[in-house]
Amino acid sequence: MHDVSTREITLSFNFDDPTLFKRMLGKGRREVHLLDEIYERSMKTFNEARYCSRFMRPYMEFERVKVDIMIFDQHQMLLHNIVYTIAEHGYGDHSPDIYDMVPELAAYKGNGKLTPAYLEKLLAAAQEEGQ
Length: 131
Known about the structure:
Layout: E1 2-3, E2 8-15, E3 24-27, E4 30-33, H1 34-56, E5 64-72, E6 78-87, H2 98-101, H3 103-106, H4 116-130
Parallel strand pairs: 2-5
Antiparallel strand pairs: 1-2, 3-4, 5-6
């Protein structure tokens, strides 16, 4: 979804199988974690939106990509919600690394990077609380 007035593209994901975030997924000749794939695709969306904006001004210009990932258990109980926004933070401030572009993922809830391994721990803790 995109909103021309806010200059934002929103990507929303709902998963009802938290084990998807534990498994490695095939991607060509390699395997990746689902969270890393979402990071990569959201960065690609940001880069493409900024590139297209150069040619669409003044009709359309995008400045950020907001991502909302909701992870539910099999009973549709929310286990975890990850929300982040990719945006430039200063002139020429652009890195291919998601953690450089999104400070809230680099220091997720004050506990370091939100990596696939850290997300697994958060999901396990949420599932234990829900039992």
